[in-house]
Amino acid sequence: MSAIPTENLTHEIETFLTREREATTYEDKVALGREVLAWAHHTYGDSLTIASSMGDEILLHLAGTTAPGFDVFFLDTGYHFAETLGTRDAYEVMLPLRIRTVHPRESVARQDIRFGERLHARNPDLCCRMRKVAPLNAALEGYAAWVTGVRRADAATRTDAQLIEWDAKRSMIKINPVVGWSHDEVDRYAAEHGVFLNPLRELGFASIGCAPCTRPVGVGEDPRAGRWANSDKVECGLHI
């Protein structure tokens, strides 16, 4: 991500960034996450949306228990686990969130006709561009800011992520309320608040993506080792 342009860098944003650098305790991080979500909800209103993969359950719970009516969009790639779709359905009724489902322009069947079956295995970058990045870009049109569940602890490619940053590709503010949370802090929040988790968690899926490209991880493995296993791919392109 790029530096926030001067015309978009408000005193409030600067204060949040300073507080995030100073937030060292679990309690501080939870409070800051709630406050930045409340600020974003108030500041951007209908021009704010949350992207959810239904594998970022902590973010959904944090948003839904902070302010009612957040707009949330879920990218249905056509390759999701049934458990992930069920998690979306559960959150639609459990919390006051307005969840919309976004689809790629082409069905999987149509994509198979054009590019052959199992494109995800032969050219995962192209598959992600068509089934994730393109529909995400379309879903963000007309919005001034978006919220994600990105955390620095997720991957080496995300260590520079900030609480509030500038998405230069889309010319908009990007807000990452749980950016500084560790894996243990995520687990603690889920346990303390009884967060409904994607059932795949119980089967060893630490990071959840499309079914053909995701496997459970073993004890001691990196949480994202199950994504695009046996390849050097580490990101789908949504956040870099």
Radius of gyration, taken over Cα atoms and rounded to an integer in Å: 17 Å
Name the poorly predicted regions: none
Distance between the termini: 7 Å
Quote the average pLDDT: 92
- Per DSSP E runs of 2 or more residues, the count of β-strands stands at 6
Describe the structure.
The protein has helices spanning 11-22, 26-44, 57-64, 82-94, 108-115, 119-122, 124-140, 183-193; strands spanning 48-52, 70-75, 97-102, 145-147, 164-167, 172-175. By secondary structure, the chain is of the alpha/beta class. The protein has a 6-stranded mixed sheet, with helices on both faces. It is globular, with a radius of gyration of 17 Å. The model has no long low-confidence stretch (mean pLDDT 92).
List the helices and strands and how they pair.
Elements: H1 11-22, H2 26-44, E1 48-52, H3 57-64, E2 70-75, H4 82-94, E3 97-102, H5 108-115, H6 119-122, H7 124-140, E4 145-147, E5 164-167, E6 172-175, H8 183-193
Parallel strand pairs: 1-2, 1-4, 2-3, 4-6
Antiparallel strand pairs: 5-6
